[in-house]
Amino acid sequence: MRAPRPRRHLVVAAGAALAITGLITGCTAGDTGTNTEPTNNSDNEASGDRVVIGFSGPAADHGWLGAINSAAIAEAAKYPDIDLRVAEGTNDANLQISQIETFINDGVDAIVLLPTDGAALTDVAIRAMEAGIPVINVDREFSSTFAARVTVLGDNYGMGVSAGTYICEQFGGTDAVVAEVAGIDSLPLTQDRSRGFADALDDCGLEVNNRVAADFTVAGGEAVTSQLLAAAPHIDALWNHDDDQGIGVLAALDAAGRNEMLMVGGAGSKNAMDAIKADDGVLKATIIYPSTQAADGIRLARLVVQGKSLGDLVEVEVPNRIVLNAPVVTKENVDKYLPTAFAS
């Protein structure tokens, strides 16, 4: 077996459509789960051997996670050769571990897993890999490269960069007051978003003057934004990390009669895009965090098990890491992104 390779930090610049790094070869995780020799096959839509896929994700307690689950199920339904087995969504790491153990015992062909806690689910994912079941890790990373055959991620750092770059384009060279309503501060994804935001602002001489953290819920967004507004009598630009909690952020702004600012959202909900398109309020842009990640995981699991590659690549195996883009949605391009927007 090869020794584990050192983990590299991956930064995807705003504007990149897809980042794909490092193929696993030899005796690493990439060897598990294929039942045929890999071929560079562009006809990936053609039906192949039956593939039993186990899917487990957190409870759909807000719109983005609901869209993750529904998109995965809808994608599997497109392929007659996929038998999808869906575990009940949960925010209990121990229950999710037991779900994966059931998938292992049932001998599924692949597992698509959005872990409620990446570190907590790492060991059971490694056990699946050791059992010859390729794991497709979605959104929240495991703490070992040996826990997944493929990892599909949104670009959290890139979200911050995109938001900060957009605000720099509007206010660069000024002394604008910038505020930030983050998500759950203990999560690495929130930390990455905030770091990307600060880095992008620094490039144009701005900084975050006022910051609060919510919990990705409407109630949480409204409560912390009310606190923020009390502490900041004037704000020029505000970035809210998540469009679900953004409903509460906007409610707090409305209740306080605060409309002096430009607001940028995050994730890409339909209600946010509708408001951007109407262009009659403070919300002028949102940053995409794709709710298609688990659907992508389903398609990739099918390709891995059937020994296929991504049709547009010369490489004959599915990559081991895919990072999706974090574009800025404004009134000028909103129609392009509305079809994949999720309902809050």
UniProtKB/TrEMBL annotation:
<feature type="domain" description="Periplasmic binding protein">
    <location>
        <begin position="53"/>
        <end position="308"/>
    </location>
</feature>
<feature type="signal peptide">
    <location>
        <begin position="1"/>
        <end position="29"/>
    </location>
</feature>
<protein>
    <submittedName>
        <fullName>Substrate-binding domain-containing protein</fullName>
    </submittedName>
</protein>
<dbReference type="GO" id="GO:0030313">
    <property type="term" value="C:cell envelope"/>
</dbReference>
<comment type="similarity">
    <text>Belongs to the bacterial solute-binding protein 2 family.</text>
</comment>
<dbReference type="InterPro" id="IPR028082">
    <property type="entry name" value="Peripla_BP_I"/>
</dbReference>
<keyword id="KW-0732">Signal</keyword>
<dbReference type="GO" id="GO:0030246">
    <property type="term" value="F:carbohydrate binding"/>
</dbReference>
<dbReference type="Pfam" id="PF13407">
    <property type="entry name" value="Peripla_BP_4"/>
</dbReference>
<dbReference type="InterPro" id="IPR025997">
    <property type="entry name" value="SBP_2_dom"/>
</dbReference>
